[in-house]
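To the wet lab folks,

You asked to see what we're planning to order before we commit. Fair enough. Below is the target structure as tokens, and below that is the sequence we designed to fit it. If anything looks off to you, flag it before the synthesis order goes out.
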């Protein structure tokens, strides 16, 4: 019985912080609404910027970083 009582007390202690973090049913203020709208606007701008970057870099130019380190090819195809 002692173990059960201690177990219930520990669960109650662990559940207290969880219930404290939940919203208490208060009304949403206009400031919170503005913050949410601003966050949504920033997200839309970010997404549109990513789309434009993807369109601009659709076909990246491939370069050979070792091009100046190789010997020039001869006419018979050997180096």
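Sequence we intend to order:
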């Amino acid at each position: 019985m002692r173990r059960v009582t201690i177990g219930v007390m520990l669960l109650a202690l662990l559940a207290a912080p969880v219930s404290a973090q939940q919203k208490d049913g208060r009304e949403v203020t206009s400031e919170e609404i503005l913050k949410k709208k601003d966050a949504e606007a920033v997200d839309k701008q970010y997404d549109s910027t990513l789309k434009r970057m993807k369109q601009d870099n659709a076909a990246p130019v491939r370069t050979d970083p070792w091009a100046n380190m190789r010997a020039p090819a001869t006419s018979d195809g050997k180096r």
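Structural context that might help your review: The chain has a mean pLDDT of 79. DSSP finds two helices and no strands in the chain.

Thanks,
Computational group
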